[in-house]
Amino acid sequence: MDSPHFPSVLRVLLFGFWVLPLFPEFVVEYLNVTRLCHTRNILSVNGKFPGPRLVAREGDRVVVKVVNHVSNNVTIHWHGIRQITSGWADGPAYVTQCPIQTNQSYTYNFTIVGQRGTLLWHAHISWLRATIYGPIIILPKHNESYPFQKPYKEIPILFGEWFNVDPEAVISQALQTGGGPNVSDAYTINGLPGPLYNCSSKDTYTLKVKPGKTYLLRLINAALNEELFFSIANHTLTVVEADAKYTKPFDTDTLLIAPGQTTNVLLKTKPYFPNASYQMAARPYFTGRGTFDNSTTAGILVYTQPLHHSSLKNLTLLQPTLPPINATNFVANFTAKFRSLANAKFPVSVPQKVDRKFFFTVGLGTNPCPKNTTCQGPSNSTKFAASVNNISFALPSSISIMQAYYSGQANGVFKTDFPATPLNPFNYTGTPPNNTMVTNDTKLVVLKFNTSVEVVLQDTSILGAESHPLHLHGYDFFIVGQGFGNYDPNNDPAKFNLVDPVERNTAGVPAGGWIAFRFKADNPGVWFMHCHLDVHTSWGLRMAWLVLDGAGPNQKLQPPPSDLPKC
C-alpha cells in the first residue's frame, strides 16, 4: 500500500528508456556543442542538450538527485509543479535554497498533485537555463484518458535560444555596464537552429509524420528572453492544454508562447501523402525599445513516403506566414481564446470572493551609475533596472529567504512590507514620470493560509511599454481579466470571467495593458514571482510571497531536508 508520503513508485524516462526503481540522477556536466560553426563547452544535464525527459504520472512521487560537476553554482526548478508543502524542492536560488556548489549534490523530492500535461525543468540561477532545460511530461493516472482524441504519437517541441558566447559573460557584462545585454545568435527547435541561419542547414529539426494520424505536440518555450510566434505551413493546430491544465479546444494556425509557458496542441495530418514538405517556424514577438534577436528558427514537417514516390528532394517546401514582430492585437485576441475545460470531470474553483487585493506595476526603470563611472543605460549616468511597484528585488547571498523564515532569522534578510499598491501613482501607460529611479530592497507580501487573493499586474510605459510574462511559483492562477491602457477598478471587474477562466502558472502582461488573476493561498512557503524574460529578472522584476502555515497537519511547510545546500 502507498502511504500518504510515499505514493506510487515513480517512473522516469531517461534517454528513451524506462528506469525502475526510480531515483534518477541529473548530473550537471560540461558538453561540447557546435552550432552556427561555433563550438562551445556548454552546461548540460547528463550530457544531453536539451536535457533528458522527466516522465511521471499524476500522483507520482518524484525524487531526482542533482549532482554538480561544473564550476558554476546551480539549482533546478521544476517549473509549474505546485510543490504542495514541499517548497524546499522548488529550486530558485536564494529564495527556497542556496545553490548546489561544485562537486556537491541535492535531492529534489516532491509529489505531483492534480496536474497532468506538459511542464519544464530548468536551472534557476543567473542565466544558466540557457542550456540547462528539459521537458516534464505528466501522464494521466493509470486507467484515466485524455479529454480529447488519443494521439497516435506524442512529441515534445522545445524552443530555446543559442548564444555563440557564454551567456554568463553576456549578463555579467550587462549588469556591469548598465546597458542592455547582447542578444542571442539564434533560436532553436529541440536544440537545432535550422536552415535559415548561416552554417546551420545540417542542424535542422525534422518531424516525420504519417498521413491521416493525430499527433500531440508538447510545445515548451525555454528561450531566455523572447516570446515566440509558432506556425506549421498549411496545418491547423488544436490547443487542448496550457501549463498542465486542460483547456476548451480551439483551432489556430499560429500560436504565441512566452518563456516558461507550455501548450499542448493536436496536429491532424493530411489524409494522403502530399507532394510537399512543410516548414515549422518560430520567431519573436517584441514591442520594447531595446535590441532583440530578430531571426527565425525553422524545422521541417515531412510525411513519410510511400515506396512508389520519387525522392523527398523534389518536394515543394511550403512556408508558414507568421504575424509581424509587434502584432499586439493578434496576441490579445489569441490569449483571449484560452478557457479552462471546466467540465464535470475537470471542474475549476475560481475564488468568487476576494480577501486581499493587490495592484502591482511591472516594468523598467533606472538605477544611478556608480560615482566617477560612465554607464550604458538609458543615459550615461544610469543603469537599466526593472521593478514591481517600483521595488527592484534584491536576492540575499548568504542564506535563502525560506531558510531565514523557517529558522526565525528574517531580521536583516528580508522585510514584510511589500506595498499592496504603488507608493507614487502616475498615468501608467501615458507620459512616463521624469523620475524613473527604482528602490532596491528585499520585501515580501505575507499571506495567511487559504487567503483568496486578487492581483492586477499593470504594465508601464517607462522606457517603453512591453509585454512581461509573469511566472508565479507554487501556484496556478486564474486569469479573470485583461485589457489595454490603465486598469479601471470601478468598471473593469464587471467584465471578469469567474466561470471558466484559463488557469496558468505564467501569463503575459500585455504591452501597455494589464491582467487580473486570482488564486487561493493554500500552499505554505516562500514563492517567487518574476518576469520570465531573464534580462528583466536580472534587473529586478521579481518579488516573493510568504504564505504562512495553516492549522492542519497537511497545511504546514515540511521541515528542510538534511542535504539542503549551504551558501
Automatic annotation (TrEMBL):
UniProt-annotated location(s): Secreted, Extracellular space, Apoplast
UniProt keyword annotations, A-Z: Apoplast, Copper, Glycoprotein, Lignin degradation, Metal-binding, Oxidoreductase, Repeat, Secreted, Signal
Cofactor entry: Cu cation
Catalytic activity line of the entry: 4 hydroquinone + O2 = 4 benzosemiquinone + 2 H2O
Start and end residues of each Plastocyanin-like domain: 28-141, 154-305, 421-549
Any single GO BP term: lignin catabolic process
Keyword Lyase among record annotations: no
GO terms for MF: copper ion binding; hydroquinone:oxygen oxidoreductase activity
Cofactor binding comment, as recorded: Binds 4 Cu cations per monomer.
Signal peptide as annotated in the record: 1-24
Keyword Repeat: yes
Principal location listed in the UniProt entry: secreted
Pfam families in the cross-refs: Cu-oxidase, Cu-oxidase_2, Cu-oxidase_3
Annotated CDD domains: CuRO_1_LCC_plant, CuRO_2_LCC_plant, CuRO_3_LCC_plant
EC number: 1.10.3.2
GO cellular component terms listed in the entry, alphabetical order: apoplast
Top-rank EC class of the record's enzyme: oxidoreductase
UniProt function note: Lignin degradation and detoxification of lignin-derived products.
NCBIfam families found in the cross-reference section: laccase
Homology family: Belongs to the multicopper oxidase family.
Name used for this protein in its record: Laccase
Species annotation: Vigna unguiculata
